[in-house]
Amino acid sequence: MKLTTSNLADRPDLRERVLGMADSWPEFIVNDLVGNAHYPRIAAELPEYVQFAEDEHGEIVAHAHSVPFALAAEGRGTLPARGWDEVLAWAFADLRHGAVPDTVSAISVVVAPHAQGRGLSALMLGAMREHARAAGFREVVAPVRPSAKHLEPRTPIGAYAHRVRADGLPHDPWLRVHARAGAVIDSVAPASMTVAAPLTDWRRWTGLPFDTAGEIEVPGALVPVRCEPDHGYAVYVEPNVWMRHTW
Predict the structure, then answer these.
(1) Contact 104, 136 (CB under 8 A)
(2) What's the rounded mean pLDDT across residues 158-182?
(3) Residues 143/192, Cβ–Cβ less than 8 Å
């Protein structure tokens, strides 16, 4: 597969095709309110931070979103325990107030379902890193969603994140891609994304009954979803793993 990478600032004509590319996210993941409020703004307000790959036939097969933010701002300094949600909020607060960013955070790397397994995630991670480097930043941080954690929803995220293979690389495939690119684990973000919704929504998203109180294992979820049928809602609090790419 012959690929060309670019970004939406240079190719605004491809915006609809990039954003309309098919993905394989579980439906509940795309119903995080913070993400719904801020994720679309990256392409609209920070198009240079949307990299994408186009194959030899002109088909968009992968894209990556990131955001610049001021990690050294007062009251910050460390990567947030509320991970993905908080760094999105920080980035757009900084943009609104004119704060000078000092760090870039990865937000997503998405590969079209038919093109998965061909190394495109590593390609897009590399494109994101190179863009940040060219823009003068000294590091990229990433609230990584471990790709195989959903197979072990009851394993604590800290234990899972630090599990390594015989060669010393992370057990998890997506953590391993980051490690091979030079990243190291900084910390765990135990509440990186929160999806709270009525049970009717959860039933529609998952096809599960959601009629029993307690922890419900949902396909694609990294941890169980807490179901409260007497109160009519369920809550998913997803953990991620902060990784730092520094050069």
Answers:
(1) no
(2) 98
(3) yes
Q: Are 171 and 164 in contact (CB under 8 A)?
A: yes
Q: Per the structure block, which two tokens stand in for 181?
A: 């690119």
Residue 230 is assigned to a structural domain of this protein: no
Could you tell me if residue 215 is inside a domain?
Answer: no
CA atoms of 219 and 150, how far apart (whole Å): 7
First-to-last alpha carbon distance for the chain, in angstroms, is 29
Report the percent of the chain where pLDDT is more than 90: 100
pLDDT tens per residue across span 68-104? 999 999 999 999 999 999 999 999 999 999 999 999 9
Residue in 57, 55, 62 with CA at minimum distance from that of residue 22: 62
Coil, helix or strand at residue 107: strand
**Lookup: tokens for 40:** 């679309």
- Total number of domains in the chain: 1
Range of the domain at 73: 3-192+240-246
Q: Are 50 and 109 in contact (CB under 8 A)?
A: no
pLDDT, tens digit (0-9, with 9 covering 90-100), for 216-242: 999 999 999 999 999 999 999 999 999
Residue 55 included in any domain: yes
Side chain identity, residue 164? V
CATH number for the domain harbouring residue 115: 3.40.630.30
- Count of residues making up the chain: 247
Contact 7, 51 (CB under 8 A): yes
DSSP code of residue 141: E
Say if residues 46 and 88 touch (Cβ distance below 8 Å): no
Helix, strand or coil for residue 165? Answer: coil
Within-domain flag for 135: yes
